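fold-stage: in
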Amino acid sequence: MILSNFAENHPRTYKLASQFMKFYLFSLLVTLLQYLLLTFLPEIIYKSTNWSDIPAQLIHIDFWIVDTYVFDFPVTGDATGGMGYFIAFALTLFIAQCVNFPMQRNITFKSKGNVFYQILWYIAAWIIITMVCSILTSIYVPFLKMRFSPAIYNIVITVVNGGVQMVIYFPILKIIFPEGEKQTSIDARQEI
């Protein structure tokens, strides 16, 4: 009763809150998937390849107080470093976004826009957000690795990255996934 009254009196706020709740639940699901993949995939890569013996320190940034790599995975002698961990990290993010994109587009935002255009914008946003989160990660992960086991610091990395990404992604997805029916060229000409 209260919820239906609120929806009636504040339809835009209710719709936004409803979208955010769906977005949040799907994001939690994807975060859980990322955690599971990041828990097991590095070990699988470590045991089946020698990629963890190759340093993966990519895109150096030296600006003001920040002197780090965007992707900073030095060789550690185990599954938590090197190119092996970077590949596990990249695969985990890619798989998560392949799950997240259709759920957010089709269920959360019910978008009927041009899917090719949306995929391109989503990929651009994903790359930029991933790089920002990776810079943050390269700053605090060395501290976490000194004090916690991989299972614990993977949880922290997943929660922090997931939280930062949720805050950034929601407004961006509102732009990328406009609501409403897909316009045909005849409809667009009639509006002019």
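fold-stage: in (second)
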Amino acid sequence: MFDYYLFDLDGTLTDPGLGITNAVMYALSKYGISVNDREQLYKFIGPPLLDSFHEYYGFDDKQCAEALAYYREYYSVTGLLENEVYDGIIDLLKQLKAAGKTIILATSKPEEYSVRILEHFNLLEYFDDVSGATMDEKRSKKDEIITYALRKNNIVDTNKCVMIGDRKYDILGGKKNHLKTMGVLYGYGSHDELTAAGADYLVSSPAEIFKI
């Protein structure tokens, strides 16, 4: 049905829960904030980090920039490898490549970190392109990332594309770029969140992605 498959990274290809929450805890500790329940920080998985520090902790612009720098102190060394590939993802990517599909990473994570993660987990070989955020966060919102990926890969016929992700940001970003969208239920977004965002398809496993 599709020729181009755009994948989110966190919560779609890999489970980043431990690394991201550890990095957020590290950043918040610099402000004397302690979080005992890791699950309270799962909301940081998906949206741009600057937005999350502002929305969830009321940080001003200066504090958000500082918190992001602290986050990266931890994440760039340790956190990005506190991660694991979801069962079935490698088989899915192999099947898509064997079928001649173009596979693109479209993530709000900085490209530099994204490439390192894909390399570490032996996933990079399956991707035709990696499109991510800039380190200065000037390109960080999912719709901007998707627009960038489409332009970078000279994709004009959006009817041949599908955006796959686990959060509403993936679905809304895909729709804004006139793509079909697929929400994965094994990540960090709920059925209600993905449905409300208008996902065209919902899947419970990587194997279902290939079936569709």
